């Protein structure tokens, strides 16, 4: 390529890098704002987006998750956008390093999820069950999240109703949450009240059912990360030739 063509290619890639990372920066700011909103006024958020609360994200603290993801995207977007605009080798190599670390962490998490599914289930149970015992019925936002989740998914607790044994809620009301009770099938000889199964097995089954879609999304994200690293390294190397 002629020097003019090379410069035109460099300028085009630079502009695409700026626009792409500007979108990431704005997206990160949006997620950060939503995360702060959920943290400050979780009940208002659930009233608007209640139908979405039956997802697996309800098992963890959505507010902190959104805040962390938003902050990471803000950093990545700033480094990529400002680094390309200022043609700063320092910021470009920082952008490359951050994206590489995230990419490696995602690959490691995927490997752990595939190889140590049982261990992940044990860790999740050990983390969430104590929260159910201590915060359900005591923390309004936490309680509302789980109420909507159990209603939408038709489940009880993380593993089953025993998650509420010796809990704050059970000690106060001497009963399990009303969402835990359901009627037996109408063809049963006797109609009686039965306790529903846990949310985790149903969520896990839903994840397995949609594994193809999740895998496609993960592959798309990985491809974008690889492309972003390649572009940042191209700009980094081309700056030496200018």
From TrEMBL:
Q: What are the alphabetically sorted keywords of the record? A: Glycoprotein, Lysosome, Membrane, Transmembrane, Transmembrane helix
Q: Where are the transmembrane segments?
A: 12-38, 58-79, 91-116, 213-237
Q: Which Gene3D superfamilies has this protein been placed in?
A: Tetraspanin
User: Oxidoreductase among the record's keywords?
Assistant: no
Protein localization: Lysosome membrane; Membrane
Q: Which GO terms describe its cellular component?
A: lysosomal membrane; plasma membrane
In the bilayer, the protein is annotated as: Multi-pass membrane protein
UniProt KW Transcription regulation keyword: no
Matching SUPFAM superfamilies: Tetraspanin
The cross-references to InterPro entries, in alphabetical order and at most eight, read: Tetraspanin/Peripherin, Tetraspanin_animals, Tetraspanin_CS, Tetraspanin_EC2_sf
Cite the CDD domains for this sequence. uroplakin_I_like_LEL
* Functional description taken from the UniProt entry: Structural component of specialized membrane microdomains known as tetraspanin-enriched microdomains (TERMs), which act as platforms for receptor clustering and signaling. Participates thereby in diverse biological functions such as cell signal transduction, adhesion, migration and protein trafficking. Regulates neuronal differentiation in response to NGF by facilitating NGF-mediated activation of NTRK1/TRKA receptor tyrosine kinase and subsequent downstream signaling pathways. Plays a role in the inhibition of TNFalpha-induced apoptosis.
Q: How does it assemble?
A: Interacts with SLC19A2. Interacts with NTRK1/TRKA.
Entry similarity comment: Belongs to the tetraspanin (TM4SF) family.
From the Swiss-Prot or TrEMBL record, give the protein name: Tetraspanin
> Upper lineage ranks?
Eukaryota, Metazoa, Chordata, Craniata, Vertebrata
